[in-house]
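User: Can you predict the 3D structure for this chain?
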Amino acid sequence: MQERLRELLENSYAPLSNYKVAAIVKCSDGNTFEGVNIETTSPASGVCAERNALYSAIAQGYKKNDIESIYIMNKGEKPCFPCFICRQALNDLCNPETFIVSFNYKGTNTVSVTVKDLCPFSFGEEDLNVK
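Assistant: Here is the predicted structure, written as structure tokens:
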């Protein structure tokens, strides 16, 4: 997984921040979906790698229970974690026990957490009282 993430980092488009991120979503049937961050001069119209990969899986018909794990890598010395917009998407579109595995570029530092660990005081459908 780490080697593929390193390759994907080359596809990242981050001319403003130069902060390149790649992500791979692995589904319970073994299929994977890849994403990279894409920046634009209007930051809100860009997309993070995690959401890019996750939305690709959802667009192909995968559901919350199908998402097994998400792997993330940046070009830095320490592992990176999803921004708060991505955390909301993960909270809404993944199970609380879905694993998020983050690698540093060299693969010498890995951190693994669950969505529940990443979003301890989450806001979700149950908070909307929608039926």
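The first strand starts at residue 21 and ends at 27. Residues 2-128 form a domain with the Cytidine Deaminase; domain 2 fold (CATH 3.40.140.10).
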